[in-house]
Every structure is written in C-alpha cells, then in structure tokens.
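Researcher: I'm preparing a figure for a lab meeting and need a structural model of a single chain. I don't have an experimental structure, so a prediction will have to do for now. The sequence is pasted below. Please return the structure as tokens so I can convert it later.
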Amino acid sequence: MSTAIVWFRRDLRLEDNPAWAAATEAHDEIVPALVIEPALLDTAGPHRRRAFLTAAEALDRSITELGGRLHVRIGDPVRILPALAEEADAAAVYANADVSRWAQRRDTAVESALGVSIEWHWGTLAHAPGTVLTKAGTVSRVFTPFSKQWFAVPMRPEAVAHDIAVTTDPGDGLPASDGAESAVLAELRVDAWQADVDAYDDTRDLPAVEGTSRLSTALRFGTVSPRSLAEAFGTHSPGRQGFVRQLAWRDWYAHITHQFTDIDRRAIRPEYDGIAWQTGPAADEEFTAWAEGRTGFPIVDAGMRQLAESGWMHNRVRMITASFLVKDLLIDWRRGERHFRHLLSDAEPSQNAGNWQWVAGTGPDAAPYFRIFNPWSQSRKFDASGDYIRRWVPELAGLDATTIHEPAAAAPLDLAAAGVVLGDTYPEPIVDHAFARDRTLAAYKAALGK
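Model: Understood. Here is the structure written out token by token.
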C-alpha cells in the first residue's frame, strides 16, 4: 500500500482539484489533511472565518461520503505535517500552491521540514504562474495584453480523481462555525448564474441589482474551480466574455504577486511610496468615520456598512469607497487594504492589494493618479434610483432619487420632510470634495517631482 497526504489549504473541494486528482492516481490510500493555522484564523474577520470553516465542513462531508474523514490539526504546519507524514507512513504530500508572501514562506519551510517529497499543483487559478507570459518571458504589467495572452492559453483538462481508499481520523476537529449560513454556500450558484450572465456587461456596475455572480468567496476558498467556471460559462456572448475576463484579472494579480510578494506593503511603482499621506489624530478620526460609514457621502457610507454587516461589497462600490479613502481623505491605501482584508469574506492578498493599488494609481496598469472619483456623480450614475443607499443607509430612505445622493445639497424643506437632520440623524460631509481633489493632486505631483 502506498499512502499520500493531500494538504488542503484554500482549495476546499474534491472536484477538479489537481492535487487531489494526482494523489489518487499515484497512490492507494489518501490522508486528507487540513492544518488550521491560528495566526491566520485569528487575523481573519468574522465573515471570512465563518466562510472558511463552513467550506471546511462541506469538504469534510464530501470526504465522509468516500468513507474517510478530514484530518484536522491546529497549529504550525511546519511541525504538524512532518509528524503526520511519519504517523501515516506517507510516501509523499500533495498540495495546491499559493502566491502570497505568507504562503510562499510557509510552503518553503514545510518542504524543508518534510522527510518526503511534496508535489505542487495549481488548483486555485485558471492558469498557473509562468504560463501567461510576454514574448520576453515576463508577466505583462499591462492587463489588456495579459488578458489576450490568457485567453489564448489552453485551459488544463479537468482534474478527475480516481476511486481510492481515504483514511478516517477526526483529529482536533473543526472549530464551530456558529451555524450561520456561509457566503460560500450562498454564492455557489453556478447553474442559476447561467441565466443572468449574458446581461453581465449591462448590470455588473449596478449595486442595487443582482448583476454579479457573488462567487468571489467560493473562489477564495476553492469550493469552486476557476477553470471549471471559465469552461462552464464560455465566451459566446459579450456578457459571458466579460465575466470570464474577471477570472483573467484574478489570475493577473496572482501572477504579479507570485513575483512581487510585497504587493500589500509596497507600491509596485516605487515612486508613489513617497506620497505624503495624511496622518495623526485628525486622519485617524476620518479613517474611523470611513470605516464605520459616517462620512456624509451616502454611497460611501452604504458600501462601508454593507461590508461591516455582510463581509461583502459590490465591486463598483469597492472602487468608490477605496477612491474616497485614498483620493478624498489622502489616507494611505495600505490602511484601507488591511481593513478590507480583515472584513471581506472573499479577501485574498493578491486581488485585494492589487485592486487597492489600482485605485491608488500605484500599481501596474493602474488608474492614473489624477483619476479621482466624484462620489456624488458615481452615486447618481450607478445607483440612480437610490435603492442601494436606502438599503444600507436607512436614515436617508425618505429622500427621493434626486436628493438622496447628496443630502448636504438638498433644500431644508426636503430634508425636514424626510426626517433628516444633518449633523444629527446623518453626518455632514467630513471633507469638501473639490478641496480634497486639489490636495491629492498636489501630493501626488510632489511625490513624482512635478
């Protein structure tokens, strides 16, 4: 009998899982292992923690159907995996690789500590790092050429597992996920999304409607394969092509992070690390107001409240809220990136940091530094009816579609009729947008020596 360990991390599925499939092909018996690292679990916010644990429970149920159990251990995988390999007399370990700084350091340390070989696969991305390159053999720093190359690279075939013996040992057991419904399960609705994906280009920017797939958390924890999503939806309509293109964006940031692991700490364009960000007590108060949804800008407040309550935020609103922190409040993008990463159920270091650098203008192919979203016009354009704001900022629900976007500009009688008292039931704007825009442009120009 030849035994192997499959080390699950953020690939919590059996279907189309390259590491699992390869192990079942090469060995007679599998030890399915999940090592819960307290340092990671403790830094995850309540939403991502719940999503992870619920996804792990679902994986355990899948393994139980095969006659085994997920071997759960809590602690440092550098210590735990070599011990488990010795205990199981395992010939090898299989795992799907990851790109973050933490993951690469951990995986190198585990590989050094193991007394057996470890075979790495890529089940978390549609295309593995190193497979989408320019003619010069590098990852394109501009997304459009990368996406063209990405679409041209053939998808790997589906990873099909073999029937095999799976060991059972509950180990430490999974921590309770508190019984709440996980975003992972709620979002895993590929079949339902087939009916809506053709309209994706028309609806994806409208936060008040169900215009996105809500599969981001499922992708984060690997309960669905990005390769299988690309295959399932195809590119035979503009909406489908636009949706699959988002998988290319996800891969692009991962491929960049694989090479530039400090993507969450340093600007990819280093000249922007010289920006004089606002700091001190006043900036801290403004950051808190932003985080708590008390800025006096309804679309911003709606997004931040949605994030705090649900662990998710619509993509268009993520851009608006991030731009507001960086370009209106002139607060370092890294503070916002950490806040999002803590609360988002779908936060993964490469995509979260990459998107923040895009908004801040500090990353590859980023929005130009002088592109500064106007929160009022963004709100009117993408939430024209005000329904998204009404859901998340209910104290403004009595305002009509004209006044709800900018209460500070509304007539006193309109505010009174809606029961809105600025500075009391809803805050005054914490910054003047025109002033903020000029201040930000000056700060960026100074950093660039202009």
